Amino acid sequence: MSVTTPTDAPGEPGTITAAITGLADADALGVRSAPTGRRALAFTIDAAIWSVLAAPGVIGAVVLLRVLLPAALGEASAAPADLLLPSILVLVSQVLLAAFGLVQLVLHGRRGVTVGKASLGLRSVGVVALGRPGFWRITGRATVLWLAWSVLPVVGPALLFASGLWDPSGRGRSWLDRLGSVWLVDARHGLDPADPKAVRQARRALVPPPSTRRESLPSLATDAAGAPALVPAARSASGVVTAPAAESAWVPPELAGNPRDAVLVLDDGSRVDVAGDGLLGRAPEPRVGERVVQLLPLDDPRMEISKTHAAFGIDDAGFWIADRGSTNGTSVAEPGRAAVVLAAGERTVLAWGARVEVGGRSFTVERAEVGA
Q1: What's the domain count of the chain?
Q2: Which residues contact 326 (CB under 8 A, 6 or more apart)?
Q3: Span 215-254, pLDDT tens digits
Q4: What pLDDT is stored for residue 249 in this prediction?
Q5: Which InterPro entries does the record match to this protein (predicted)?
Q6: Would strands 318-323 and 278-281 be described as parallel, antiparallel, or unpaired?
Q7: Residue 175: how many CB atoms within 10 A of its CB?
Q8: What pLDDT was estimated at residue 130?
Q9: Which of 81, 256, 276, 285 is 20 to 30 Å apart from 306, CA to CA?
Q10: Is residue 86 situated within a structural domain?
Q11: pLDDT at 11
């Protein structure tokens, strides 16, 4: 059982949940990247609205310059009446731009849309659990865009947006998207991660129907598979039945072996035995003075896993994992429960069968087989 409290109510075992646990899960369910053309058109719509709101301010600023510049050069005097209207235009324009910018940031951070994106059926989602991107991440993204415009007008923003064309993951994520840990998806022609009903239906389509085949039950007169035969106890000369020998006692397989033995089954089918405290990531390295016995490097062609992404280990409580402040986070989904994004630095003990998502890779935590 997890130590952390999930943000969504846990479902019953076998429940089809509406949680998407990462990019690999999203691909399987049918989440699609936003096409380049509609992405550019959405930005054009937002920029057009911005330009309309900025136009009165530009006009007012030009008029002010035409009035104030001759006055500054001593060629003419500036009458207060000539300054009133252009000043009002500049002020109103700035207020409208500030209000529009704030609305855009709130909508984008909390719902994943801007005016342009919403009109074209696009949505930004976080890359960890495909939820809302977050206000501050989007604000940081917008700040970088503004700085790029300030340093290299037109060219800077164009380069940032064009960087999605050479995204190695093929999802069209630009440098801005990577900075904000977001992914722009096509919610109109693909699966909308914000629609729980659609996600449940997509997941249900992936789950095979339950088998109707009846398992043949062993006869009560025969031995259970894997269990030693029950041999009648010996009877003494006095007629007393003696207890069976201790070595004939049967231990159920699920209780045998060391409960601290665990194995990680990666998404590529490989298996890694947990030897003790360890680190995983793109190229994990321990901190100064930190002692670990296992380093687990993960291939990451999409560059979504941090260098040292998470720590893990196993103790008397079971297998645990802790995010190490990674860029794209770590999420876990225990059997029958919704996915939970882990808080950085917090150890979380997982149940057997839990699925862990780190960047674009995932693995399942299983108990090691007895005698393996």
Answers
A1: 2
A2: 281, 305, 306, 309, 310, 344, 358, 359
A3: 445 544 444 444 444 444 444 444 444 444 444 343 333 3
A4: 40
A5: FHA_dom, RDD, SMAD_FHA_dom_sf
A6: unpaired
A7: 17
A8: 76
A9: 276
A10: yes
A11: 37
pLDDT for residue 24: 65
Task: Please provide residue 298's backbone torsions phi and psi, each rounded to the nearest 5 degrees.
Answer: -115, 130
Burial class (CB in 10 A: 0-12, 13-18, 19+), 72: exposed
On whether residue 19 sits in a domain, the answer given is no
Among 178, 206, 234, the domain-final residue is 206
Torsion angles phi and psi, residue 155, rounded to 5: -65, -45
3 state SS of 371 = coil
DSSP character at residue 171: S
The CA distance from 154 to 148, in Å, is: 8
- Show Cβ contacts of residue 233 under 8 Å, excluding neighbours closer than 6 positions: 241, 242, 243, 244
In the chain the first and final C-alpha atoms are separated, in Å, by: 25
235 within domain boundaries: no
Among the three residues 173, 206, 239, which one is the final residue of a domain in this structure? 206
Question: Is 37 in the same domain as 117?
Answer: yes
pTM of the predicted structure, to 2 decimals? 0.53
Residues 6+ apart with CB under 8 A from 248: 228, 231
- pLDDT beneath 70, residues of the chain: 1-25, 75-76, 78, 129, 203, 206-260, 370-372
